[in-house]
Amino acid sequence: MLLMEETVVPDTALPLAEFKAHLRLGTGFADDDIQDPVLVGFLRAALAAIEGRTGKVLIERVFSWVLHDWQDPAAQPLPVAPVAAVQSLMLRDLAEEEEVIDPALYRLERDAHRPVLRTAGQGLPLVPTGGVAEIVFRAGYGAGWSDLPADLAQAVLLLAAHYYEHRTETALREGCMPFGVASLIERYRKVRLLGGGAR
């Protein structure tokens, strides 16, 4: 299975002004924006870390997911949430010939934690032997920062600030999150731990 981002979060969707305020950086100077690229980098790193820990896509973008077979021929859980729309379903055989599946044959079952691609008939289309199915979908809480749940937005700011404040540290550590961040994201992680097809 391979999950790929087809679009990226634009810089304009990142809360740069909020992050500067959170860090209590001075304003009104001629070089106010000198640290902007560094701050954007920390915001992106924090965003990626929170998404990795929770399985939730925070800022909306398009993904493609390639898999070799269905977990269940009637319903395939999708790897991240929340999913707003399935844009296409395509089968590709060993000869790289592609078949686009009619959207009338499947439907998206929305769920805050475990969205599912379900058959609208007798079953999802058979994946060719040695071939793959590719699902293209749009996922995320929304296109802008204001669309995020407040606790996840705060977790990103806290983690980005942690990265910023410890940016000169070179010691290797285990991947533990600061306590405040871990507490804020905990309720988003619990359901994900159910795994595969658990509902």
Automatic annotation (TrEMBL):
<protein>
    <submittedName>
        <fullName>Head-tail connector protein</fullName>
    </submittedName>
</protein>
<dbReference type="InterPro" id="IPR006450">
    <property type="entry name" value="Phage_HK97_gp6-like"/>
</dbReference>
<dbReference type="InterPro" id="IPR011738">
    <property type="entry name" value="Phage_CHP"/>
</dbReference>
